[in-house]
Please model this.
Amino acid sequence: MALITCQEALDLVAAYIAAFSPRTKVDRLPLEQALGRVLAQPIHADRDQPPFPRSTRDGYAVRAVDHGVRRLVGSVRAGEVWTGAPLAQGEAIEVMTGAPVPEGADAVVMLEHVEVVPQGVSIADNHLPSAGDNVVPRGQEARTSDVLLRAGVRLTAAEIALAASVGAAELNVYVQPVAAILATGDELVSVDQTPAPHQIRNSNSHTLAALTRQNGGVPRVLSPALDSRESLLERLTAARHGDLLLLSGGVSAGKYDLVEDVLLALGAEFYFTGVFMQPGKPVVFGRLPATDIHAEQWIFGLPGNPVSTLVTALLFAMPMLRALGGESSPKPRFVQAALASAMKVRPGLTRFVPARLYSSLDVVSAEPVESHGSGDLVGNARADGYIVVPSDADSLTSGATVTVLLR
Ligand code: AMP
Ligand code: MG
Model:
């Protein structure tokens, strides 16, 4: 199969995601346990928001049309309601932030702009109120039964806050997707073993399990496969449970890169088997169709070099995992940044260059870190993300706007 561009590969994954039928399996959870999960129901406003005209300041509720010193007739705190007569011409009522603004008043003058005098309150000339000042009218943020959150949204602190504000003490979230994780390679030993000089610790299974958790999935880590057909066949069969299969290694053109062959023998179909990108060129995306005993399983064959595994997982596999968890149109996380120093690059492939981000209120800038290619986990850990160097660029000037893939 011919190689495709990185953008084509992203679009292909997005197209398969867009064709998903909605998830159906849900967990019902208390709000306290819902952080990071994907909402499986809409959340509605249970009443107008705010439920009363709310003062946004500590100050004095008045009528904007009035003039001169206002007679002070009372005070309302947050949690109280004004039970006296509606505010009449020339009157003021002291209000606190969050208090209901008494009927008859249409503005709140900030405490700081008022002088309390024997006859009442005198408003500074340069702070005379207009109707609506410092008052949020009832229902301005939302009306009773408005949809505030839709199914498919991942619950961060902002959504948890909103759900709490409308009394969603329990909510339905989608069941977490399961990612089967299978590393391949004769050279691999597990993290608790002492490798011989020619052996490598299996870090990729840990990378992929960590990414899976970060993206709301449940990892099912299998013991690695050897680079033989028998071993791959046996391990891939064992890995057949799970919505997604994340494979590392064995997808390059080498003599012992047998993953694609064995997947084909198991009935897999492939949507791409190589992308014009670096690192990650041999990356594979496909699917094992449903059988009598197994549900369909999406497959990502990720190149084994540890940085390739990470970058291709971030770009392609994690959006798919999040979609399998019910999230609406998940995308890789990109930001724009100003390049901190000029870069020379070789055109032809979309490159992902490990970089550190420096942020201020004015600008986010990205600076490549010292790194020695796609096997360099040391350089990789110095970075916050990857500068995306377009495939047609041969150099980038200092200050140029670049896209950065976050992890
Ligand atoms: P491969 O994609 O199988 O050709 O592997 C490319 C490189 O990545 C080789 O140097 C492997 O030793 C290394 N590698 C493959 N799998 C892993 C893994 N699970 N953990 C760490 N390094 C790996
Ligand atoms: Mg290998």
In short: The domain at 334-406 is CATH 2.40.340.10 (Beta-clip). DSSP finds seven helices and 29 strands in the chain. The chain has a mean pLDDT of 97.
